[in-house]
Write a structure and sequence with these properties.
3 domains, Glutaredoxin, 5-stranded antiparallel sheet, 432 residues, Alpha-Beta Plaits, 4-stranded mixed sheet
């Protein structure tokens, strides 16, 4: 019996495309709710009713007609698929899972770093973008080599592997992979075009136009997408202007209609504070950051932190990079941390972190201690923050435990035995 149910998402969500294309092949009947009044991203997915079914509040989220609920795009795509898409043998199923994991761990981070600034929703960083381009070249070369002797990624028919990787490459092919850039990867191009021209893909993606000219960062568009203050209609003295600015900052700005690109990446309404639903906390993160930046960490900043920390309004998490075997040169590993911090720029007001690289070239690991507003991970609150965090394992630690005290001390001071790591401190970065 074919699966039937409702998919909650936002318009043009490439992650939702995976399940929708899979459903075209399997015959699953999926009703899509992506626009008001049925579904308003940023509001509906934060209601108690929604969170009862989907605790993390992420989309896409699927609710079966039989009441079965599931989130995470890969899990949903797997659930609505048939045996042919999932793999008819144990080996094929493992290979499909391999490529699905590869898409998330290897393609999503550099693709986002490169594409997001061209859509005007993230600041451009030359070093990070150039590194992302090189990573995309590496990925395309790997895929090109594999597809030289294969029609599709696994076997001779389209599977979830092809669906997932195509959807993950979608915005690269639409925005930045201009003909001269993609020309060397003939096998990938052949495979990609073959897939998107299948009736099942076209039913969801429509007629896809490949990039003709590499999109560039548009500083003007980026500035336009930032929150703006209303200008006064009459001239005011500097004192009056300052008072007016303070009042304007307190007023909620009206939501702006999202254009297609912003919708595709689910940019949060600019005036919406993702933490507005939380009660006020007596702990001032800004005050702690000033202590941390200007005073002795061990003697002043840490005592201040523990004296004022509000364990009901904030939470502490230990994070560890999931793929240490893929870390090569230490400078490249540091770029991973820097890139993540840059993409989380708007989270700084409500978070603090110390992330450390341990070890040496070809034998290293990354882990860190994060402090977030609220009791849950902050990343699901905004699509802009979801690029990197799934590459880490996250464990909430009890602020009253000795383990937590030791972790905070070691990571915030960059000193200690770090017995849980087993490698020497190399260098660290602070998110504040």
């Amino acid at each position: 019996m074919a699966v039937a149910g409702t998919l909650y998402t936002y318009p043009e969500n490439w992650r939702a495309f995976k399940a929708l294309i899979a459903a075209q092949y399997s015959g699953a009947k999926i009703k899509v709710l992506s626009t008001p009044p049925q579904f308003h991203f940023g509001q509906t997915n934060k209601t108690p009713e929604f969170l009862k079914k989907f605790p993390v509040g992420k989309v896409p989220a699927f609710e079966g007609d039989d009441g079965f609920c599931i989130f995470e795009s890969n899990a949903i795509a797997h659930y609505v698929s048939n045996e042919e898409l999932r793999g008819t043998t144990q080996e094929a199923a493992a290979q499909i899972l391999q490529w699905v994991s590869f898409a998330d761990s290897d393609i999503v981070p550099p693709a986002s770093t490169w594409v997001f600034p061209t859509l005007g929703i993230m600041q451009y960083n030359k070093q990070a973008t150039e590194y992302a381009k090189e990573e995309v070249k590496r990925i395309l070369s790997l895929l090109d080599s594999h597809l030289k002797t294969c029609t599709f990624l696994v076997g001779e028919r389209i599977t979830l592997a092809d669906i997932t990787v195509v959807c993950t490459l979608l915005w690269l092919y639409k925005q930045v992979l201009e003909p001269p850039f993609r020309q060397p990867y003939e096998n990938v191009n052949r495979w990609f075009v073959t897939c998107i021209n299948q009736p099942q893909f076209k039913a969801i993606l429509g007629d896809l136009k490949l990039c003709g000219k590499m999109a560039q960062f548009d500083a003007k568009k980026f500035a336009e997408n930032q929150p703006k203050k209303e200008s006064s209609k009459k001239e005011k003295t500097p004192k009056e202007e300052k008072k007016a600015e303070k009042k304007e900052e307190k007023k909620a700005e009206p939501e702006e209609e999202l254009d297609e690109c912003e919708q595709a990446l689910a940019a949060e309404p600019k005036s919406k504070d993702p933490f507005a639903h939380l009660p006020k906390s007596p702990f001032s993160m800004d005050e702690f950051k000033r202590k941390y930046s200007n005073e002795d960490t061990l003697k002043v900043a840490l005592p201040h932190f523990w004296e004022h920390f509000d364990k009901g309004g904030w939470s502490i998490w230990y994070a560890e990079y999931r793929f240490p075997e893929e870390l090569a040169q230490t400078f490249m590993s540091c770029n991973l941390i820097t890139g993540m911090f840059q993409r989380l720029d708007k989270l700084r007001k409500n978070a603090f972190a110390s992330v450390i690289l341990f070890g040496t070239n070809n034998d290293s690991s990354i882990s860190g201690v994060w402090v977030f507003r609220g009791q849950e991970l902050a990343f699901p609150l905004s699509p802009d923050w979801q690029v990197d965090y799934e590459s880490y394992t996250w464990r909430k630690v009890d602020p009253d435990s000795e383990e937590c005290k030791e972790l905070v001390k070691e990571y915030f001071t960059w000193e200690g035995d770090f017995k849980h790591v087993g490698k020497a401190f190399n260098q660290g970065k602070i998110f504040k």
